[in-house]
Amino acid sequence: MADPGFRTRPDSRGSTELQLEDAWRVVVLNDPVNLMSYVVMVFKKVLGFDEAKARKHMLEVHEEGRSVVWIGHRETAEAHVFTLQQWHLTAVLEPDETR
Amino acid sequence: MKRVEVKLSLPVVAPLLDILRDLAVELARTLAAPQALHDLDQDFRGSWIGELLEGQTEDIRALLSLFDGEFFTEGVIAFDENNAEPIVRACTAFRLQLRERRLKSLGDESLESGEIDMEGLDEETRKAFMCYLFLATVQELIIQHLDSSILGS
Asked: CATH classification of A33-99 is 1.10.3470.10, yes or no?
């Protein structure tokens, strides 16, 4: 998978901390049209998921209405959203406010 | 190169081509899946949509090119690793547009389950639904036989 946006930096105590700056989420929303097999294929193709991970996220979209499929730097997140939209999935970009 | 040839019933599929051509005209100006792009600035949004539209148009062109002379003489359409990806995307674009413009009255639950009483539909809706199912079948065929070609490209 592409750069997840994590970077390490030494803190004042000399230890290393993991920090996520400018984190954005790529969220795929449910639609009543796309076939399950199609969504699985798109997740594998666009996000590099294996079959099991692609199916897990597809079912999440289907059953819960949305699935966060990627988190990281905005530029890469935008690229993923664009490609998912090229495949006609409803994909949105959200700031990741959980961190 | 892996190639999949599908023999179609001309009397069944030929009438659906008029719908596909109408959809292609509609989708020359609009995205099949309108997207929320609130987080993008105005200029970027314009070029974003423009590029999506351009790709959508190319995909649709690939799908329509399946129905050329060979289709009308032999009833055969063929998929390979060069056209599988745009065609599978174009099928989705058409299905989204069919749902939005011609099949709203059926309701999403019925569309998803496919449990539709065909006898109860008027002629126009019946043809649109046939088209919707036909495109799904094309997609399933491609995904079933050419998934690895698409993933490898």
From this structure: no
